[in-house]
Amino acid sequence: MEWAEYNSCISYVGGGAVGGAGRRRGAAAGAGAAGGAEPGPPAVLVSAVPGLPREARLRSCAGREVVEPGRGSGVPGAGRARVAAAVWEPPRAVGEPNPSVRSNADPGRCVSSLPRGYEEEEQLHPEADSSNGHEIKPSPKELAELELLNRALEKALKIRKSVLKKTPLEAQRATGEKSAGEGPAPKNAEEQQVPVPLGIVPESTKVITVSKKPASLKKPSPCQLRAPYRTEPDVKKLQRKAPARCVSQGSRTAGKNLSKGLACKPGRSHRTAVSDGDTCVAAELQKTSGLSKSALNKQQSFSVGDSAGGKNSIAAGRHVFDAGKKSCGSLGESSRKEDPATEGVLGRSTSPQTVTLQQKGCQLKLPLPYRKAYSRNSRAWERCCLRQTNADAAAARNRFIEGIQTTFGSPMPAFSPAKIEKELKVLQDVPSLLSQYVEAELADHPTLQGEYESLLTLEGLQTTVSQCLHKLQLLRAALESQMRLCPDCAEDIGSCSPACVPPRGQMCDSAGVLAVPLLCYSSFQELRDLFALKLQVSMLHQEIALQQIIMAELLPVLESRLYPEEASAAQLYRAIYTQLCEGGKRFPVLADSSRLCVSSPES
Amino acid sequence: QQPGRGLPAAVGALCRALPPRARPAPDTLRRARFDRPQASLDFWRLLYALLKQIHGGKWTESDAIDNQIRFVKSALWYHGYGRPELYRLPSDGSAGSRELLLAFSWLLHRVSLLEQLLAQNRVKTGDETSVCTCEDALPSSQKTTTEMAPEYALGDRIDVRYLQWLNGRLRFQWRSLHAQHQEQCKLLHKIHLFTSGSHMDQILGHFSATETDLVRQPENYKQLLQLLDSETMQLEAYLEWKQLEPVYWQWMETVLDNMAEEGKMCESQDAHVEKSGLSKATSCCPWADGLTGQIDRLSRDLMTLHDQLHKLVTHRKAAWCEKVKTREEELEKEGFSAAARKIQESVELKLLDLTSLCAPEKKKMHGSCRLVFRSKHPASKTGFDGCVSKEPVSAVSAAEVIRDLQLREASLGRELKQLQEECRRRLDEIAEGLDRVICIPP
């Protein structure tokens, strides 16, 4: 969780403090360069290399945490830009989702994988990781540090879980986790990447994942980036012993679910079931169980075979394993979730496998009273929808409306407030859209025709922009005159807000639409995208609102230097910078220029 | 002149077509026609209930009457109702029933009151999801932020770390919400897929989650059946109303005429009151501020774009004229003018899209819709052939909604970026003032 990172970040400002959670193995390598004054670990020490822009070098360090050995103090000509400042870097490498393994974005497991770190742009590359792991053998001291780090992260995870447990889903998972009872962390990180130690939690989580959360029906496309974020199960890659246990656990649970499903009130069937098509279903079943078996085998061979942990093979293994998991998972789930639904139909069924919505769904029938009520209702809707206002009524009505509107006081503004809102809503995305068009026309055109077309388009765009600007002026004028008419605002300054709560929903009118509003989707992926996008839009709304509030409240504090003591200035600055400029996702590096002076005489 | 027996029937149908929770007694309308004071309170309540439903607000019958009246007045203002007499009605609700009857009738047509209420209160048996972003556009007016007592905020000093922690938590909650949405999608889709062909409504084709549960335990859905039935009755009343409607409007004309006659007498007295009450311009209203802010932002963005385009067009035009001048004969030989016409047409076509997007008439779905799964491969579907042709006009495709959402996302993203840029600028200035600290952005 990010705040854990934040805290560790904050505890270290300017290179003095030692953030325990921030320790990284590689950092120790560069510790000497600071003149021995610092214990160092959270600090990657960089002294200048001639000819390389400072920023770029810092960046490369931040990305890989490789501090060029031997370039520390003795480099000749290192007198120019010398930054021996301590550079803090978030401890992101540990427990971070592996960005290269993206095949899986199952929502169910998303939740369980939440405790892991967020995916960030600045992630360590797995290649860098593994190469590190192979080249540098950890010293006992480093191992001790790792141990410490482990404990810190474990603690962070516990806190997260306590948050997680709030949803019933999570509670379920949490109990499963307890029963899974995993062993301690593999302390030995010899041939593994940094993330190894975290194996503890993932393992258990994974077991639960298998048993409780089946994989998605369809393989989600790997590059679904529109989601507000991508949570992904990063868990599996380090399993050594888990797979076998995992699957067995999964199938055991699934079996339990199945039997439970069967046991539940088998006598209550009051509908007859058409039960053909069982054969193909059974065949399908065999296929899936076969798949799960083979997947299991493959997974085992992987886990024994590749000690190097080449990421491709691991990814592949995981992929296959997922498939296996899916097959047993979906069995478990469909029976768990849907059996009561089909139970009425298939009450006397003997084979556990047939009790799913998947197989009997197309033969289900809604109860008769509902069917009757529903069709009466939908017929009524249909008739209302087709019903037109007759001419008599329309004429009388229009006379009345015209008559009443002549009695309206002072000349009414061209737009009612509702209309203003509506018009603005129409315009809200226009600048963005227009600039897309403009950008498309920016390139030079080789042919005369192309050039001419581009010119015409640009002129057309210019006209549109002018029209929109004109419209905005009209709206602004209308709004001003409307505000003069506003009953509450005119009466009682300051207390208008309760009634001025924008009457919402007006935007959603589309008057007279009595037809059944349907939203058709054609694939699972589309549905997921739709939901993710809606959430993303809501999130952006909130982000913008928060940004504005924080800007209004925190920037003045920094600008006016009203914060308490000098020491916290950098801290505050970084916090605000992170929040306001990077959306809380990335950190600026604050270098202490006085340290620069300390280290330069040495070289 | 009283339109005989048709009127009570019309008024009766109208009342029954209104939602049960706000349904007035037909008598209220009749009494209001004679401006009886005892009807005025009922009428305020009626309008309050109806308008609250339209605007999706929470309300109870016991809300303070002056608040109710205030709300009704401002909602009428919002919709552009301009009879000054209405806004002058006393805030204790003691008078003005005929004035309210007029306003009600005006709303009936201008806001399509009945239709909107019917559509909005539609009994939901399907898996609904909203197709517009309207609900998000306006931040909640309830300023409850101060109510949260932060444990870390002792005194008036709040550690910035607390803010960061909150932010992290917020992001985490979004994340789990996302995960849960995705999970919901998955389950919904399963239900839709597995039950396809089961629904007797062939337009839908499959069950919703509610209906699946209904199959499982029908005894829990007695209320749903009742709701459906009562809605059906309401719809039938609506149909009846549509038939009898002319009588009502004729009646309203006579009411208006009566008002006008009476109004002439007291007009002279009112004139000065009106002026003083409505001439103050205020900017206290957050709603108006929000809109003004939006107009400002849009104008700024468009102005930037305008300037950019202006430069670009002038530049290109000059270059173009130059080119044409030097190669005039050559171009004529090639028959460029014909080609030019073709290009003009294609550009017009290209820009047509754009202008339609800027037009207010753009047909846009709002509110919530029932999710329906339509496989792209009808062959794989067991079930009815030909049901696809029965596609209702009101159906909107997910692809369309996704496109709109993407546009919205892009433009919100831009807005956020702009804000961040502004912050970066200001923070850079601050960093220059800090001692001994060099800030290296990530």
UniProtKB/TrEMBL annotation, chain B:
The regions listed as transmembrane in this protein's record are none
* InterPro entries reported in the protein's UniProt record: TEDC1 (IPR043535), TEDC1_dom (IPR027996)
The lineage's top-level taxon is Eukaryota
Residue span(s) of domain Tubulin epsilon and delta complex protein = 80-257
Signal sequence span is none
Taken from the record, one Pfam family name reads TEDC1
Coiled coil feature spans: none
Q: Which PANTHER family match?
A: TUBULIN EPSILON AND DELTA COMPLEX PROTEIN 1
Record's protein name: TEDC1 protein
Q: Which gene underlies this protein?
A: Tedc1
